[in-house]
Amino acid sequence: MFKLTKNMRLLNNKLSVDEAKEIQEFSDWLLAVGDGRVNEPNDGEALIDIPEELLIQEVDNPIEAISREIYGRVNEIQLNSTNSLIQNSFRGEIF
For the whole model, what pTM was predicted? Predict the structure, then answer.
């Protein structure tokens, strides 16, 4: 079994202090959910409150809404050689 020990997003030196804090808080919450530490003590089954800012409000087309939240609006992404998000995602270096 392998464990991730380093949050690669936090190594980005272009992050502001607030962005780094937000990413760290989300990471901590996500780990707590995955480790079953949310709403302790519990018997292995717990109700998890998902923060409002993580909810996708659009329900007309859920797949499109999820895709847009993850990748943005495709027509707004500039597909050229200077777009580091696209380049790095092909190399597996999104963060």
Answer: 0.54
